[in-house]
Amino acid sequence: MKFDRMLSIVNILLNNEKITANDLAGKLEVSKRTIFRDIETLNMAGIPIVTYPGIGGGIGILDGYKLDKSILSTDDMKNIVMGLKILQSFENKDIIERLITRISPTNEDIALMESNVVIDLSTWYSDGYTQTMMDDCKKAILRNNRIRIEYHSKNKYSKRTIEPYKLIFKYTDWYLYAFCTDQQDFRLFKINRISSYKYLEEIFMPMPTKDISMDFSVKENDLGETKDSPSQEIVLEYKAVHKDLLMDKIGARNFTEDGKFIIFYSANTNWVVDLIISLQDKVKVIKPQFIISEVENTIKKMQEQYKR
């Protein structure tokens, strides 16, 4: 925290000719005494910070020391602020706003700018329980606390003690990258497969992490295809009345100009069948034949579920 605060002081002073100790203390939410202690430490580190007494005085960096008014360019600052504004959708909004003010203390246009890229992550797991779990995961990552989880993988249910390192958002899901003490290896845990958890007071010693593999391709599906299988051409017939909805699901570039067909390519049979089933009667598979057969078999299984 002290290092971050001193870095903020240097950044503020680089962007201001002078600033009062009261203003610095207010921006960084510490006492004036803490500010003066930090300034003394910075002076000892070789940064020539001086104080100007009297009316109009304040704290500044010695003239001639500053080569640039800012550590970061305006474009750099805009990109950082854009990223921080994205974090506001699932982080504490007040904390992010204070951080934006700290890194851009004199450029109000940057601090208040509206990003031309808006990503709202709050719609994922907006229920109170999961949001609390996400917050606890973030806290455990920062403090190196272990977590005990009940986890449902595709093959089994298990209880595990994990050492969390990163929260990752991929496609439409959140994942927790952690070291599993049971398996003695790093794992990716899908957040919505964690049925319960307990934040532990046990502290772990961080270790070097492995490269995170985010390849979620199906290794082998029911037809024996692997992730290296060549993509198959999928042709669907649709009615014009459903075009808008289908564009949202599949993408406008996959529609033929005659307004009759959707054509796309995929090597993942399970994903294609799930997509077609989810579209109900809005599409009809024209080819390939094995996809037609898979869809028919899935519909038959669904019908069996409702037979009394």
Automatic annotation (TrEMBL):
Residues 2-57 form the HTH deoR-type domain. This is HTH deoR-type domain-containing protein. Keywords: Transcription, Transcription regulation. InterPro entries: CBASS_pafABC_assoc_protein, DeoR_HTH, HTH_11, PafC-like, WH-like_DNA-bd_sf, WH_DNA-bd_sf, WYL_dom. GO terms for molecular function: DNA-binding transcription factor activity.
